[in-house]
Design goal:
There is one protein chain. Helices cover about 25% and strands about 30% of the residues. The chain is of the alpha/beta class. Helix 4 packs parallel to helix 5 and helix 7 packs parallel to helix 8. The longest helix has 20 residues.
Length: about 700
């Protein structure tokens, strides 16, 4: 231990900027930006013999962080697996240690010292060391060889303690794999608060003003009430426990929300007697004692016992948008569930509604954190005077409601970068450093149930917002760096090592990969890492193209899919007699079909939605097709002429003036040409994949 401390002290003493040398290194670009940087010359480099070295006194507690870094570096560099060791670092090593003495860094801050010999990350807490590894990875990502870090000293720490994101999984299901990926994605940007909204329902007028047919879902496995668990997508208890465990190892706090007593149709469908006859079945009847019995048991199922489902320190109880006429009952209900959650050793979060629900019934304040989203429901000044801790979640700045026509489809990133911080709660701005403003959170609400939005579409909206808001909640407003400069750096920063939820495929001049005359031909002079696929299954390569014979007949490709913007072009000669739903291209997320269902027309399917182009591919003759997609829709070309653009379709709701935009987007599936079970019969040749839209030649 003494040797390690002596080494660190000597390293810092030797590492001083030399005014006589060349210009010192500018701060490296990372998101969020470094709070403090002292540059030096030269650079640290990973070497073939590099290792991740743990200071002996910290080795046990930092082991998990070291092994996550080890795997991340392997994904990033595509090189050898760096060994994890304990001891004193040598040239090319990454050194991790705890330093409890440096209290100026707080719970999440860290010190990173990069010299030509070693790179050392130290912090008072494990969390700080972990954040330091995220900075290291981002800088290496920007380096062309993924091996260099500029020499200097970074002292980094967050401006706000809570840096969050809210995801509505109640009205649109997101797979557990998506949530796992999001934990890692958020962590890459030092976002530490993942609020998962587990239940909700659609809008009553959108379902014929019939509560029985109005969509509602609760996403957790329930053993107390098996009928409560959504049939169209849910998480087992063990999956949710493991998600929280994963999040903890990545420095992210999962906040599960059971939303009551409004947005509660899933519960009243289970037990109709607890639905409000006065305010509607999406409101619970707060005068009925059975309501408390049922909701108590639901919370207890996930909080009680030696192996609770909710394992983190905080639980959100909802309490949003209840009818004005029952303020006292609502306040009593809110207080009851704050105390119920606390009785299981958790802290409670609530939605801000107590200004709207003004009354005399006391609601617990101490240790309760409130998301304030609309100042008319909860006046932020009034709430801070009462003593609530605040998470700034302003709808006028931070609400994404995909393709809904209200709130934001994509956030106004420039305005957020230039003007917003968590101290801004809608039109109220608190003083910088106000201790009750704990941080901020932006949100995705899936109000338009059944509108065709996919996980990919949601991520397309969230990704750039995550970058900007990570910057604003960690570093605050940076007047030294314009939005244009930030955006340029952000465009070259990804989702983390090995992650590619956006389906981005680099390629010189836009061409990602191609098959010509049935032979895999990777483009010349390409900067892409994509390699050509191989013939497997029953597909046969001949001079005139790739031949498919139905059933299990496919070519496995080197990538699973390509995201927006793209064009996939190919020539096709279908055989006669192809059945319905035969597949041209497939991946785990989507399929492109020669004959969509019973229509006989070309189409595609993803996430339970089926779409069809008004076009039948001619049999026994060659046709040149191109499918192009972006975040707005999908287009089909035949022989270089536009056939149809699937974009802008709307669904009207009977009896209302409202309508819903139907999203007809596609991440193009590339894992297989053909399919492992339902391939088409025919020939494909001259396949080209471009990473720009409407590229026909």
């Amino acid at each position: 231990m003494k040797k390690a401390v002596l080494f660190i002290t000597l390293q810092l003493w030797l590492f001083q900027p030399d005014a006589r040398s060349q210009t010192v290194n500018a701060p490296p670009f990372v998101i969020p930006g470094l709070r403090e940087w002292q540059g030096n010359t030269a650079q640290f480099s990973l070497l073939p013999a590099s290792a991740i070295v743990l200071e002996p006194g910290s080795a046990k507690v930092l082991s998990a962080t070291a092994h996550i870094l080890q795997q991340d570096l392997l994904q990033l560099t595509k090189g050898a697996l760096l060994p994890v060791k304990t001891g004193i670092p040598t040239a090319g090593d990454i050194f991790l240690s705890l330093n409890k003495a440096d209290t100026s860094l707080g719970k999440e801050g860290y010190l990173l010292v990069a010299t030509p010999q070693t790179l050392h990350i130290s912090a008072p807490e494990i969390q700080g060391v972990f954040w330091g590894t995220r900075t290291l990875l981002q800088v290496l990502e920007h380096d062309s060889l993924h091996t260099h870090f500029p020499c200097g000293i970074a002292k980094d720490y967050p401006r706000y303690a809570i840096r969050g994101f809210v995801l509505d999984v109640g009205r649109k299901f997101f797979s557990i794999d998506f949530l796992r990926q999001y934990v890692k994605f958020m962590s890459y940007y030092k976002m530490n608060d993942f609020h998962i909204h587990l239940n909700d329902n659609g809008f009553y007028p959108h379902f014929g003003s019939n509560w029985d047919s109005t969509y509602a879902a609760f996403r957790l496995q329930s053993d107390f009430y098996p009928a409560l668990t959504a049939k169209d997508g849910s998480y087992t208890k063990q999956e949710f426990r493991e998600l929280q465990s994963l999040a903890m190892s990545y420095g992210v706090n999962i906040i599960p929300e059971i939303d009551v007593p409004a947005h509660s149709l899933a519960f009243s469908k289970l037990r109709p007697e607890i639905g409000s006859k006065k305010y509607g079945m999406d409101h619970l009847d707060l005068d009925n004692p059975v309501t408390y019995q049922v909701i108590d048991s639901i919370f207890m199922e996930y909080l009680a016992g030696p192996n609770p489902v909710f394992t983190g320190p905080e639980v959100h109880i909802g309490t949003d948008e209840y009818a004005d006429g029952a303020a006292e009952q609502f306040r009593a209900f809110t207080d009851h569930y704050i105390r119920l959650v606390e009785s299981y050793g958790k802290k409670a979060r609530i939605w801000g509604a107590l200004t709207d629900a003004h009354g005399n019934t006391p609601v617990k304040v101490k240790d309760v954190t409130m998301n304030i989203w609309f100042n008319g429901y909860a006046d932020p000044v009034e709430m801070t005077k009462l003593g609530y801790n605040i998470i700034s979640t302003p709808d006028s700045w931070l609400y994404i409601v995909p393709a809904a026509g209200h709130y934001y489809d994509y956030l106004n990133l420039r305005s957020l970068y230039n003007k917003w911080e968590p101290v801004q709660v809608n039109n109220v701005r608190f003083k910088d450093g106000d201790p009750q403003i704990k941080g901020g959170s932006f949100a995705v609400w899936n109000d338009r149930v059944g509108n065709g939005i996919t996980e990919k579409d949601v991520h397309d909206r969230v990704f750039p917002a995550m970058q900007v808001l990570a910057q604003k909640m960690w570093k605050g407003t940076d007047s030294t760096q314009s939005y244009a400069v930030f955006a340029a750096g952000a465009a070259n920063t990804g989702e983390g090592p090995g992650a590619n939820m956006r389906g981005k495929l680099p390629g010189k001049n836009g061409l990602v990969l191609q098959y010509q005359q049935g032979k895999p031909a990777h483009k010349d002079n390409s900067d892409s890492q994509v390699k050509p696929g191989k013939i497997t299954g029953a597909a046969i390569r001949k001079k005139d193209g790739l031949h498919f014979h139905g059933g299990r007949s496919f070519v496995q490709m080197p990538v699973p899919e390509i995201g927006y913007d793209y064009t996939v072009s190919f020539s096709i000669k279908p055989a006669t007699g192809n059945a319905s739903n035969t597949v041209l291209f497939s991946s785990p997320n989507a399929v492109v079909k020669l004959k969509q269902q019973q229509t006989g027309k070309l189409g595609f399917s993803r996430e339970g939605y089926d779409y069809v182009f008004d076009y039948v591919v001619p049999e026994n003759q060659w046709t040149r097709l191109a499918i192009s997609g972006d975040h707005k829709g999908t287009r089909l070309y035949a022989n270089d002429k536009l056939v149809q653009s699937l974009q802008g379709q709307k669904r009207n709701f009977r009896g209302t003036k409202d309508s819903m935009l139907i999203v007809q987007t596609l991440f193009f599936p590339l894992q297989y040409i053909g399919d492992t079970a339902h391939a088409f019969k025919g020939v494909i040749k001259d396949l080209k994949v471009w990473n720009n839209a409407d590229k026909l030649k």
